[in-house]
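Worked problem 6 (solution included).
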Amino acid sequence: MIAEAMKGVHEFILARNPGLEKLDGDLDLIDSRAINSLAFVEFIFLLEELTGVQIDPEDVNLDDFRTLDAIEARFFSRKAS
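Solution. The predicted structure is:
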């Protein structure tokens, strides 16, 4: 389940960044502009769809979206618990 959901995250990012061939878990997605401000809202909707949980904008911490490792820990690890 987690691996499949993270596959969706990978596909989203790679589809919007044709220059990226591979995503490392520690790549800074924000500083590298792999997720830019225009795609951020769409990315939030994707995470909501994949997790089945609504994301409260008041509860958003940019560091939760900074790397794939952080995204997995914040949005997918709790479901496994």
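Discussion: The first helix runs from residue 2 to 16.
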